[in-house]
Specification:
heterodimer, B: mainly alpha, two-stranded antiparallel sheet, globular
Chain lengths: ~130, ~550
C-alpha cells in the first residue's frame, strides 16, 4: 500500500534533481546530484518490496524466521550506494569550491579553460 | 565453529552454502583485484618515501600480470571459471567469473598500466608522488580489473565507483586550473552515468530478484518483456555515457587533455573501454532479446559515433583533444559490433577493445612526448619535429594508421571483422560508416602529422622558417618515456603482423558471450530443464524463500 505514496515521492525527487542538475551553477548541480542519489535509494527500497516491518533476524535455535521478514538485500544495496554517493559528493563539493577559488567561477559557462570559447578555425594548410 | 559443524547435518542448508573450502585455483580469480587493492593501500602508507613507490607498484602490476596470464591460459584451455565469495552458493554470494573476454581485457589493462608507470618516470614531479599518484593508479587498476572480472551487477556498480573516485584523483593531481575545469565536467557527468546505472539496477532487482549476471541471463527471458526493455534502455544510456558514445560524449573531449600525458594515456586506454565491455556483456550476453528491440537505435548511434568523432578530430587544433575524438571513434566501432551481433561482429568488437586499449594509450604517450619536444599543446604552435626527432614522427604515423585501421597495422583486423559482420546482415549503412570512419580518421591523423612533423615551423608567416622552440629530449625522458612508448608501439606492430593469437582469443570470447551456457554452468547454476515462470518475482520474502537470511543467522 505504501508503495503508492513512495512512487510519486521518488518521481518528485527525480524531477527536482533533473531541474537542479540542468542549472549552470555548480552548487545547484551538487544539490541536484544529492537529491538524485536519495531518489535512487528510495527507488531501490521500493523495488525490494515493502511488505513487512519485522527485522530479518532468525531467532536462536530456529532454522527460519517465524513470520515474513523485511527484505534485507535492498537495505544492503542502499547502504552501499549511500556510502559511495556520500564520498563522491564530498569530493565534488570540494572540487567545486576549489574551482570557485581558482577559476573564480561558479557558473559552468564561465569555466572555459579546458574548452576555450571563440576558438580559431582549424588550419587550412594540408 | 565447532558448534556449527555439529549442527550442520540437521540444518540441511546445501541450497545456500558451500561447506567445503574454495580451492586455491579458484582463489586466483580474485588475486588481481586483491593485489591491486593491497598494493594501493601499501603505497598510500609509504607515499612519503619517494624511492620505493615505483618499485612496489611495478612489483604489484607484474604480479597482477602474472596471475592474469595464468588465468587466461586456463580459461582459454578449459573454459570459464568462477568463484563465489564467502562460501555462499550462487546466486546468493557475489561471484567473480573469469572468461576469455574479461581476463583478456584485464590482462591488457594491467599491461597498459605497466607501460604508463614506466613512462611516468619521465614526467613525475615530487609533489605528485606525495599526493598519491601511485596509490591512485593501483586503485584505478583495481576498479578496472574488478569491473572486468565480477559476475554480479551490483558489484560492478561498486567497481565503477572505485574506478571513478580513483580517476577523479588522477584527473586533478597536480592541481592546475585547467585540470579543475576538466574535472568538474568529467566528475559530474560520470557520476550521473553511474547513478543511471544504479536506477537500472534497482528496477532489475525489483523485476528479477537477482543481480547475479549468470542468474539474470537465466531468468530475464521469463520476465515482463516491456519492463525488461525499459531496463535495458536505462542500462544502454548509462553505459553509453561511460563509454562516450555519440550524443552523450561531451565530457571526454572536455577533460581527457587536461591531466599529465601519462594519466591521459591511462584514461584513454582503460576507462571508456570498461563502459564498452559492460555494453557488450549486458546487451549481448544478459539481455539479448532487448538488444534485438534496440537494434535500429544501436545501429544509428554506432553510425553517428563513427562519423562525428573523426570530424571532431579534424576540427581540433589541440593535439590531445583531437586524440579524445579518436577514442570516441573507437567506441563507435565497438558499438557497430553490438549492432551486428554475429560471431564475427562480437569478436570484432572484442578485438577492437583490445586494439583501442593499446593504440589509444600509445597515442597519448607519444602526444605527451610531442608536447615536451615542442613545448606547446596546440598543433598551431608545433612544427618541424620531423627534423628534430624522427623516431617520434614514425611512431605517430604508425599509430595514425593503426587507429584508422590501415593494414598491416593492428586496427585493420577488428575493422575487417566488423565490416564483414555488418555486410553479412546486409547493414550497408553500418559497413559504410566503418569504412568512412577509417578514411576520416586517417585524414584527421595525417593532418595532425603534417602540421606537427612535416611543416617546418609554426603556423602563420613563419611556417617555412625553422621552429625555434623545439628542444631535444632529456636523457631521463629518452630512457623512460621514449623507451616505454617505443615498446608499446612495437607490441602494436608485432600483434598487427601476427594477429592470430588475439584473433583466436577474441573468437573464443565472442562464443562465450553469445552462448552463455558455459558461463552459467561455470558460475554453478543449473540450466533450466523446464520453464517455470512462477519462480521469478521476489515479491514475497517469505521465510521459506529466503535462504540467505536463515543461513546468516547460523
Amino acid at each position: 500500500m505504501i508503495e503508492y505514496f513512495m512512487a510519486p515521492l521518488v518521481g518528485a525527487f527525480f524531477t527536482i534533481a533533473v531541474y537542479l542538475i540542468l542549472s549552470r551553477a555548480v552548487i545547484q548541480m551538487l544539490l541536484g546530484i544529492t537529491i538524485l542519489g536519495n531518489g535512487v535509494n528510495l527507488l531501490i527500497f521500493v523495488m525490494g518490496r515493502i511488505n513487512s516491518e519485522v527485522p530479518p533476524i532468525v531467532p536462536p535455535g530456529l532454522k527460519q524466521p517465524l513470520e515474513a521478514i523485511a527484505n534485507p538485500l535492498p537495505q544492503a544495496l542502499i547502504l552501499t550506494a549511500i556510502v559511495i554517493g556520500f564520498a563522491l559528493f564530498t569530493f565534488l563539493l570540494i572540487l567545486g569550491y576549489r574551482a570557485y577559488q581558482e577559476l573564480d567561477a561558479d557558473n559552468t559557462n564561465n569555466m572555459r579553460l579546458a574548452e576555450p570559447s571563440g576558438e580559431t578555425k582549424p588550419p587550412l594548410s594540408y | 565453529m565447532a558448534l556449527d559443524n555439529i549442527a550442520k547435518p540437521e540444518l540441511e542448508l546445501p541450497v545456500a552454502m558451500l561447506d567445503t573450502a574454495t580451492s586455491i585455483a579458484d582463489w586466483s580469480i580474485i588475486f588481481p583485484v586483491v593485489i591491486a587493492l593491497m598494493g594501493g593501500a601499501l603505497l598510500a602508507m609509504i607515499r612519503h618515501s619517494r624511492g620505493s613507490q615505483i618499485g612496489f607498484s611495478l612489483l604489484a602490476v607484474l604480479a597482477i600480470i602474472g596471475v592474469e596470464a595464468e588465468l587466461l591460459y586456463r580459461v582459454i584451455v578449459n573454459g570459464p571459471i568462477a568463484m563465489t565469495m564467502g562460501n555462499w552458493l550462487p546466486p546468493f554470494g557475489i561471484s567473480f567469473v573469469a572468461d576469455a573476454m574479461s581476463v583478456g581485457f584485464a590482462l591488457t589493462a594491467a599491461f597498459v598500466t605497466l607501460v604508463v608507470l614506466i613512462y611516468f618516470q619521465a614526467e613525475i614531479v615530487p609533489r605528485e608522488t606525495r599526493h598519491g599518484f601511485y596509490p591512485l593508479v593501483m586503485l584505478l587498476l583495481a576498479g578496472v580489473t574488478g569491473a572486468f572480472l565480477t559476475g554480479d551487477l551490483f558489484n560492478l556498480y561498486v567497481w565503477f565507483e572505485v574506478m571513478l573516485i580513483a580517476s577523479f584523483g588522477l584527473m586533478i593531481i597536480g592541481g592546475r586550473k585547467i585540470q579543475l575545469d576538466g574535472a568538474i565536467k568529467y566528475g559530474f557527468l560520470n557520476f550521473l552515468a553511474t547513478t543511471f546505472f544504479l536506477v537500472g539496477l534497482g528496477y532489475l532487482y525489483g523485476l528479477l530478484g537477482t543481480l547475479n549476471m549468470a542468474d539474470i541471463s537465466l531468468v530475464a527471458p521469463l520476465a515482463n518483456p516491456a519492463a525488461m526493455t525499459a531496463i535495458a534502455a536505462i542500462f544502454f544510456l548509462a553505459f553509453a555515457m561511460k563509454a562516450a558514445a555519440f550524443p552523450v560524449n561531451a565530457w571526454l573531449p572536455a577533460s581527457y587533455h587536461t591531466p599529465d600525458a601519462a594519466v591521459s594515456a591511462l584514461f584513454g586506454g582503460l576507462l571508456t573501454k570498461v563502459g564498452a565491455y559492460v555494453l557488450l556483456r549486458v546487451l549481448i550476453a544478459l539481455l539479448p532479446e532487448q538488444r534485438d528491440v534496440f537494434d535500429p537505435i544501436i545501429t544509428i548511434i554506432a553510425i553517428l559515433t563513427l562519423i562525428t568523432a573523426p570530424l571532431g578530430a579534424i576540427a581540433q587544433t589541440n593535439l590531445r583533444r583531437a586524440l579524445g575524438f579518436f577514442v570516441i571513434g573507437g567506441i563507435g566501432a565497438i558499438l557497430a559490433g553490438i549492432a551486428a551481433p554475429s560471431i564475427k561482429g562480437v569478436s570484432g568488437a572484442t578485438f577492437y577493445v583490445f586494439h583501442a586499449m593499446l593504440t589509444m594509450s600509445a597515442f597519448y604517450l607519444v602526444a605527451g612526448l610531442v608536447e615536451r619536444v615542442t613545448q606547446a599543446t596546440d598543433t598551431r604552435q608545433m612544427g618541424g619535429v620531423y627534423a628534430s626527432n624522427s623516431l617520434l614522427s614514425i611512431m605517430f604515423l604508425i599509430l595514425v594508421f593503426a587507429a584508422a585501421g590501415l593494414p598491416p597495422f593492428l586496427g585493420f583486423w577488428p575493422k575487417l571483422l566488423l565490416t564483414e559482420a555488418a555486410l553479412q546482415q546486409s547493414d550497408w549503412w553500418l559497413a559504410g560508416a566503418i569504412l568512412i570512419n577509417s578514411i576520416l580518421t586517417s585524414i584527421a591523423g595525417t593532418r595532425l602529422w603534417a602540421h606537427i612533423f612535416w611543416r617546418n615551423g609554426r603556423e602563420g608567416k613563419k611556417s617555412e622558417v625553422k621552429n625555434d622552440r623545439l628542444r631535444a629530449l632529456k636523457p631521463k625522458e629518452n630512457r623512460f618515456a621514449l623507451g616505454a612508448s617505443v615498446a608499446l608501439v612495437l607490441v602494436i606492430i608485432i600483434i598487427g603482423i601476427k594477429p592470430n593469437i588475439v584473433f583466436q582469443s577474441a573468437t573464443i570470447a565472442a562464443k562465450g558471450l553469445l552462448q552463455t551456457t558455459t558461463y552459467i554452468t561455470a558460475v554453478g547454476l543449473e540450466l533450466p530443464t523446464s520453464v517455470t515462470p512462477t519462480s521469478v518475482a521476489p515479491a514475497s520474502v517469505s521465510p521459506a524463500s529466503n535462504p540467505p537470511a536463515s543461513g546468516v543467522a547460523q
